[in-house]
């Protein structure tokens, strides 16, 4: 049986989505420290939107963290751009830990070396998610737009695992599945095991990581035609591999075949965008599913922005959305229906 506090929180999320009004603090605050990035990925435009002059100051970032902790948010995801290129990154990690938040760092892994690895362990970061989009350098580097990045990431993972400290963070590899790396997905999982990473997360392509709501089917990376049969075989193989390698038990994995066929329906995907995750952009904009609902510099109260009229209007649009992006950061299986809420 669930702990009463957990059950109550799960129920409040279910009721929030039902009523369209947030009755509980988000699970996670996602803070993009910078748009600066050293890669030029085919499925992301963030690297083209860099202006350091607009970034929140360290004082402003720490105030965001403080408000999140006081609100009852339990987890912070630091990302970018490339967050390790920000000189504020480690201070924000350390401050977040002092405030009792679980800290996840999402990085492309290219700047991790021995010194960075040791600093990450000292900082107390809980999880390091590293984006790696192929089992070979040729495929990964083509997707990420810069030669030599695959080798840097492998060295970074090895250096992180080499740190002699019991506080080593959990390491997760993130694989964005699409037409160019589909044939490497199975070997990718085997490679991850060889690298001793703790988990692998397969996320399906969206047209642009920054614009989740944009059309996808005309993207050259989209899996179509005869390649859909290949997709089915790959997913079936990965399901079998779970017995020996990694569990793919998050909500989106079971829907990948439907997703690339445009077959995901409302009953398949219960979206909690606008309820589960509070997103802060480098310039202080507060974003909800690709739309700006406020700015921290104009209203230095994140709860007030979350409960504002623009946020409420965006939630109404999200509720009617059928262009499902299949991003697990928008899923909350334990609150998807009353049966899940009250299950043990």
For the sheet with most strands, the description reads: 9 strands, mixed
Total number of β-strand segments?
Answer: 9
Report the CATH superfamily: Aldolase class I
How far apart, in Å, are the first and last alpha carbons? Answer: 4 Å
Please report which band the strand proportion falls in: under 5%, 5-15%, 15-25%, 25-35%, 35-45% or over 45%: 5-15%
Q: In the CATH hierarchy, what is the architecture at level 2?
A: Alpha-Beta Barrel
Number of domains: 1
Helical fraction: 25-40%
The count of helical stretches stands at 12
Order of helices and strands: HEHEHEHEHHEHEHHEEEHHH
Computed over alpha carbons, the radius of gyration is 20 Å
CATH class: Alpha Beta
User: Which spans have pLDDT < 50 for at least 5 consecutive residues?
Assistant: none
What gross morphology would you assign?
A: globular
Strand order, sheet with most strands: 6-5-4-3-2-1-7-8-9
Rounded average pLDDT: 92
CATH topology: TIM Barrel
SSE map:
Blueprint: H1 4-19, E1 28-32, H2 58-71, E2 75-79, H3 89-98, E3 102-107, H4 114-123, E4 127-131, H5 137-144, H6 149-162, E5 170-177, H7 185-194, E6 199-204, H8 227-241, H9 256-260, E7 277-280, E8 285-288, E9 291-295, H10 302-306, H11 309-320, H12 338-342
Parallel strand pairs: 1-2, 1-7, 2-3, 3-4, 4-5, 5-6
Antiparallel strand pairs: 7-8, 8-9
